[in-house]
Amino acid sequence: MTTLARQRAPAPTPSLPWYRHAFVWLVFGLPAAAVVAATTSGIIAIRGADPVVPEYATAAKQAAEESLSREEASKVPAELARNHAATPRH
User: Which of 26, 30, 31, 90 is least enclosed, having the fewest CB within 10 Å?
Assistant: First the structure.
């Protein structure tokens, strides 16, 4: 017999446990991270929610904006600039 025939087949390597495979961590880890992020976002949104603006406040603001005529509204930037230019420098 030749030397090739006498060689034994290599012993099969033992299988790794499931937690040693990187793909398993991707399959379980990414959805778990998404759940944690969504829960955290929800908690932040609920605890830090802005107060509701009452309707009468928005109605009053709209009425005030409508009361200014176009002419008055167009003068506002010019008056601000003129007043600023007239302030004395120290």
Answer: 90
Query: Apex CA 18: angle with CA 13 and CA 24, to 5°?
Result: 125
Q: Is residue 77 part of a domain?
A: yes
pTM of the model: 0.43
Alpha carbon distances (Å) from 78 to 10, 68, 74, 83, 84: 90, 16, 8, 9, 10
Q: What is the pLDDT of residues 23-78, one digit of tens each?
A: 999 999 999 999 999 999 999 999 987 777 777 777 777 777 776 665 666 666 66
**90/83 Cα distance (integer angstroms):** 16
The alpha carbon of residue 2 and the mean position of all alpha carbons in its chain are separated, in whole angstroms, by 69
Long-range CB pairs of 68-71, under 8 A, 24+ apart, other chains included? none
Is 61 contained in some domain? yes
31, containing H or E segment: helix 22-47
